[in-house]
Amino acid sequence: MPAEQPAFQRYQASFTAHIRDPRNQPRPTGVPARRMRVYNELLFNNIEAALLACFPITRKILGARPWKTLVREFFALHKCQGPLYRQVSEEFVRYLRLRRPGPSDPVFLADFAHYEWVELAVDISPAEPDWDRIERDGDPMRSPPVLNPTLRLLEYPYPVHRIGPRFKPTTPDAQPTRLLVFRDAEDIVRFVVVNAVTARLLALLAEENAQVDGEAACRLIAAELHHPDASVVVAGGAGILADLRQQGAILGTRKVAPPVSD
After folding, report:
1. pLDDT 10s digits, 182-221
2. Which domains does the chain have, with CATH numbers?
């Protein structure tokens, strides 16, 4: 038989269980109700404040009472995997994607919460360009482009960038919404709506160990589309890459190391 858990550990488990779910878990023996209530309110309020900072529109869409009920549910049921306080918002998104939606939940709730969260994720990302390996004036159609290291290419079944208290879709769009999210040189997080071709082009360029230049990627896309004139796709791709470069999503091209002399 397994050894009985020490008394102090049983007490800790009881104490934290009550903090998580004070309505359904009994207060530990010997703890005054008033003092226990201080712990309950302090910890819950801290978690809710962290979530409010990241999900202000989600709260407005749900309304004050359903929002608080959802946060309480998350606080009671979800076991966070990360030890850092700033990871609470990411854990909330994970919880929404794993849980069974409630009958009154908006159908887009998990996707929209992810959309709100990703701004924080990109803003605090430690990724920085390695400028020693980037040719800032390189031609991305002739050499492999270097993408902004904070760049994320996202796809949602709902137009998340339009959702708010006055617009709450009830069914997915016929075509997914594709967003490019990155932190620019001014440390501003930017959201760019892109079409399917732009998304495919960026996906090809972002592949691990990709050595493809912009023109080669465009020609591959032309073949995938069975386009009758690949030069049209190449010309369009050149314009896309130039625009993304101007916005800061593309930083330049991969610098070629000089040959090693004998």
Report:
1. 999 999 999 999 999 999 999 999 986 678 999 999 999 9
2. 10-105 (no CATH), 131-254 (3.90.930.50)
